[in-house]
Amino acid sequence: MKRTAYKKLINWKNSSDRKPLILKGARQVGKTYLLNEFGKKEFQKIHYLNFQKTKELGNIFEGDLSPVRILELVEVVLDSSVDIQRDVVFFDEIQDCPRALTSLKYFCEDMPELALVCAGSLLGVVHSDSAFPVGKVSFLHLHPMSFMEFLIALGDTRSLKYITDITKKDKIPLIIHNHLMELLKEYFIVGGMPEVVSVYIQNRKNKNSGFEKVRAKQNELITAYMGDFSKYSVKVKSNEIVSLFEAIPAQLAKENKKFISSKVISGGRFSKLRSSIDWLTGAGLIIKVKIANSGELPFSAFTMENRFKLYLFDVGLLGALGGLSPKAVYMQNNLFATFKGAFCENFVAQEFMYTDSAPLYAWAGNTSEVEFIKENDGDVYPIEVKAGLSGKLKSLNVFSQKYNSPYRTRISGRNLEINDSVGMHSYPLYLAFKFPLK
Length: 438
Hints:
Layout: H1 5-13, E1 21-25, H2 31-42, E2 45-50, H3 67-78, E3 87-92, H4 98-110, E4 115-121, H5 122-125, E5 138-141, H6 147-154, H7 157-165, H8 174-190, H9 194-203, H10 207-232, H11 238-252, H12 270-282, E6 286-292, E7 303-312, H13 315-321, H14 326-330, H15 342-355, E8 360-364, E9 369-376, E10 379-385, H16 394-403, E11 408-412, E12 417-419, E13 424-428
Parallel strand pairs: 1-4, 1-5, 2-3, 3-4, 6-8, 10-11, 11-13
Antiparallel strand pairs: 6-7, 8-9, 9-10, 12-13
């Protein structure tokens, strides 16, 4: 499947100060597929080593970590010569071979001309106890497929071009808006895990059956993640990580989505769950949105470590983890009231992370709260995500007046409407990735 990260891989390849690249991300977000496609298309030859599939490959890295010695052994094992000027070497599942991770430092220093790419689950790469090659590698984070990539996978190039090229001066015809909102319903169920998207495309003609197969695949992935928790969580209790992970849907189903530790485990305190939260955040499986008590910059100066919201990294898995039937989502007339708007907020958080991996922030005052606040060119913008087509904008108004925002933004099921005269911008949910519209 086509991924927008491919262009970033091309930029890495052509960089004058290229370092070994680690494509990181959660299990099954498409890292291996993307790097294999990149290697086959952009290099003379790809030399592939999978440390999870073939454990014996780890023996290559016993002893000294000289790149010359390692490549000689790679050539013997693969029975293939490596042209360091024209080929690419691919270390897959690198988290399963800590010494290979350490060796990247020496490839960077002693053999910079070799194109070396790696794929690794964040679960292993982030939490590895081995010596990490700080400053000697480049990183690229691969998230689940965005809504834009979902359209690419569906082959809906017309809709894709429309939302990609749109500006704030444009109007969206109602027929196109309704079409995109229907596709968004599908995305809320399917999400962006490539294997799940593939299952859906193969069975999309019969949506009922397709959604059932989607849920089955999502449940398989959730089970696999649970297995990973015990495998990699050496220093953190895996049962606490599981409890936290499973609690995300219930936390988001509340009217006030601020994370409450006591709702996860009996008598639970933030201090008890801090390590599990950090672990899952570092592993890329949850999105942590810190709640600031001021709209001044920098936002980080006005946060407390125990005030935040947690979203799941994939909206499709959110529905599966919460046990919500696809029919309840797809057949709901007011989709955005389902789950108290949790799908909408989770979706927007994902889209924001996909377009800009900077930390996300929310705002809460004495009696008001705004789902997201973002800084752009020194200005601060409040963003509310609405579960329906209408609703009061009290919190937006309070924030805007207090911190003199250039304009307020509502992201909801409404069509695009830019009204600069009153400082109000309304985005349909499927345009969240375009904020701020030019």
